[in-house]
Amino acid sequence: MTPNPLPATSPSEPLYFPSDVPRLFGWLHVPPAEQAADVGLVICKPFGAEAICGHRSLRAFAEMAAAAGVPALRFDYLGTGDSADIDPDADQIEAWCRDVLAAVDELRRRTGVTRVCLLGLRLGALLATLAAARSDCVDGLILVAPVISGPRYLRELRITRLAALLGAAGDAAAQRTGSMEVSGHSVSGATLSALSRVDLAAQGAPPVSGMLVIDRDDLPSAHAWVDALSGLGVQTEYAALPGFVQMMITVPPFTLIPHTMIAVAREWLLRFVSVRSRSAHQDGALREPGSAVAAVSLLPLPGAGIDGALSERPVRLGPGGMIFGIVTEPYGGERRRRAVVLVNNGPVYHIGTARMSVSLARRWAQRGYFVLRMDLTGLGDSDTRHGRPDNEVFPPTAVEEVGVAIEFMREHYQVGDLTVFGLCSGAYHALRAGVAALPLNRIFMVNPQTFSWKEGTPIDAISVADVVRAPGAYRKVALSVAHWKKLLTGKVDVARMVKICSRRIVLSLESTLRGVVRLMGVRLPSDLGWQLEQIAARGIQITIVFSGGDPGIELLRMQGGSALKRLGERCQVHIIDGADHTFSGSSSRAVLEDVVSDVLFAPQKY
Length: 606
Hints:
By secondary structure, the chain is α/β, with parallel strands linked by helices. The chain is 39% helix and 18% strand. The protein folds into two domains: 12-149 and 207-292, Alpha/Beta hydrolase fold, catalytic domain (Rossmann fold); 298-601, Rossmann fold, CATH 3.40.50.1820.
């Protein structure tokens, strides 16, 4: 099986650039040739958790532009997303401004556009404005909730860092290096210094012919700057619109695309560009969509192999190439055929929380593994199946799609040893892959919060994890005067409390009954303990990792029951203290990577 090229009608293609030293990953969204404009759009993403939450919205902005006849390039800065890593001591602001300029050059080279508009969100808006001052071909700016003052943005980052209650080890490391970690994303000391000196309001007017500033309606902050720019003669439009909170500071399962913002950006863009009809072969620059994937691009990476390099390859899998993924390949002389498939953590796209999937893939490839980090359909950069919603955490076709990925790795890379890895809902999909008897050797489940899922259940419904977490929490509530005041003033959802406690009683009874049934030798198909025993009986190694205090620990004990003792080493359970649910902190994430790597490279005993 070979990677499927993009369908001829696809509006986008993955690519690496620049051509001489490919180090940045991006997506080129190309409109039909007869609709192509003489202006292109480069999208500059925000930083850290905002970039992960806003990923689907960034894609929607790019697709809007292509549909309007404007070729668009969205991309990852160095050290982010699927791009190459960055020197941890580098000035990220300076490096990322250079990346924006490289993206401008790449868009012009591939499409032949003569002018470029930059669309930046949050920190990306600041980078776009700084980069525009260095380029003769950037002629327009669309800035969404722009970061105008570097010092003010630093204060926001520090507040976010404190709110996240990062572990002491991570804090100490940050203090030693002068850097700062925010939601698992590092900001170097040089970057902190650069941000402390940046103030767009003091830098005069950017050298562009037009600007659109879209402010957030709940906390607008750019109006005074826009007024000042207008006074300097810059043709600037301003709008304070809803949608920012739902797009960028809402957890990924509940993010919403800001359709109002996109519509306003589209109308401005259509007025800004001069659309003219031209043939794809008029100047020899505009590509047919999909040609880059057929001739796969490679990304050289530092590695421990014989030739000192790894490579990364974008692939399309499944019917019509609906499933997107990136394979990290070990050095060319690797003879062992081992692979790992990394499944989405909820709706977080294939880089994982705080880019953990990228780190794991490159670490394991250095030791000889082929690693596929994939997006299930409806998530990340994969397509959405007809009739299904996007951003679906538990798509009913997940096991089928993991099976497609396994088949691809086995056939294309001749893999004989295969592992499936998942965190949270990805852990559930890994379990289901084992239950479905897919051809694999081991599964890693990190912080699973459910071992069964009924299609159609709302993602915000009371979960089993809520139920097993509840007793201790409500005992504290019962002893708290403040909570009694809330209860008496109607600020506590009593019905929800009663429902959770009732379900806890039912769950405990079910757990006891399942234990009795197991002793009687009866095997219930929906019983987790029996499912784990079936998986282990096929020689599949099971590793489950929890952060300390995660409700999944109690859930596993209740639903796995006595089977866990019988499985012994065939089902290993590890608990890592000081970690949050997604292991977003670098210190706890490093421990997790060590734990799963030790298991992955240990000799299999059965």
